[in-house]
Amino acid sequence: MKLVTAENILAGDAAQVLGGAFLGNGPAPHSVLPVQHVSAPLLGTDLPALHEAWLIEDTAEDAPHAGESEGIRWRRCGDVLYGVIALPEDALPASHEATALQRVSESIYARIFRLLDAEGLPHLWRAWNYLADIHGDDAGLERYRRFNMGRGNAFEQAARSVVGRVPAACALGLAQGPLTVAFMAGTVPAVPIENPRQVSAYLYPSEYGPRSPTFSRAALVYPPGQELLFISGTASIVGHRSLHDGDVQAQSHESLDNIAAVVAEANRVSRQGIFDLTGLSYRVYVRHA
Contact, 84 vs 19, CB < 8 A? Predict the structure, then answer.
């Protein structure tokens, strides 16, 4: 399995595509595949949009099959499943206990866990989360913190760990749109990786909200015959503090130092120890670009 970029995710043999993402402004093309729409402008290119696709390199033994479950579009090949769900915040009303965003966040992850249980794929490896106005206010609390509350509640309700063995993940803000989550899961547990330069996200102090984020800094995962490294969203954070406010260049250097630290830690426990900064595929986000 490998990640490739292309102008059209359906180009070539779609039977070999597990799923992917459509990155760019404008409407996403119709696809029967699970494709996450990341509605944001592309910088440094004339392309209006870009596709990322997870390709299955050998489908001889296990032909991919697909389905839909509670709004999740998914595709599975053997021991690996990729899925996408997008749910508008008005899909569920606020309650006395939770805002609409919190309820939608919890509902999405509850649906994901029900699907994985039904498919016999208990191990969530990686999640890509996008929500509108991530730092805006939601009933007196930052929207990202509301998202964390909903996600964490879903983990607990599904009897899943909220510390230690948690998936790699990112959470990014978009200008508008639904809460959308893409995810990959498998039959084999991931090996969580932490960054020695940073406090583990799930151990953040209470000043960052009622519930700490539920993700590891990275994860080593094992599709059949492979070892892949998923690195979570990171920034210029040391310990649990963001550094270099207003200095994009210094933030970039600090972020790369964090990625290098994660890669070194991954290589320490890797079965192969082959990862380096030049061999990674990156998504780089610029705030308010």
Answer: yes
